[in-house]
Amino acid sequence: MKKLLVPTVILLAVIAAAQQDNPPANVEPMDQTPIFRVKVMARTTKAVNYRHRGGSTTVDLKGTTLLPEAKGKAKVDSKAGRLTISVDLSNMLPAASKFGGQYLTYVLWAITPEGRAANLGELVPNTDGKSSIEVTTDLQAFGLIVTVEPYFSVTRPSNMVAIENIIRQETKGFEQPIDARFDMLEGSQYVIDAPADQLPSAHAGPKDPLDLLEARNAVAIAKAAGAAQYAGDSLKKSQDMLDRAEDYLRRKQGRTPIGTAARGATQMAEDARVLTLRRRQEEKIAAEKRAMQEAQAKAEAEGDLVRDYRIVAILTRPLL
User: Fold this and answer.
1) Furthest-apart CA pair in the chain: how many Å?
2) Which residues sit opposite 61 in a β-bridge?
């Protein structure tokens, strides 16, 4: 029996040494890993397929509970494979900022039957609540909505739908109207890291141009999302363009140069924000994958340890 104890002790020592040399990997708690905090909601709207149609047709536009008095129409003309959309709206009151400090403007969207949202442009109502826009699109089947947004260059509609199209019985379309289901961002998404009352627009002067307010907020929102770490080059370009717009304002260079620089800053800031969210998501997925691999390796190591202990138990079992 004493002869058997010697190799057993040696085996136990080898196992202990192996545990010290290769300790189980520590899995980082998930509350310390980057979190991709995007709340997505779903909604449906009516879409019409205008494909292969000549001439023009019209759909009505009607306000939702956000803008119950808003109304208008959209005329869709088919020309050489492209569609021209002319939108006229009235009673777009109150101003977008009344819905929250993060909101500054209205954006027109085309929603395809597959749920893709295309930003068609910004709607800026005058003091009477009237607004018009004419745009072209390669899309052939879509519905139209208007949402309340923090700036004109957003890449996905918010859930603040203010106006949507109403299909007339006489609306001409290649097919019957179809339901288009699409995703929207919850409005609070933009102020998760930048509270609305801390955005630059909350402390702006009464005569500051809307384009400049949007640019200031866009850059601030991108910075709060972490763009300095994940999209530094894009953020720097947006900041440079914003600084140029601010300089034009100080030197009273007029609305056109201010607006051109400010809109460039807004677009670049949105690119930086979207790139940041994408890279944060990739980082989160990679962290989860590492955690799973480390947990699996730990489980396998513990399984090997149990097996080794069983071998020791068998070796040290008294012989009958």
Assistant:
1) 102
2) 72, 165
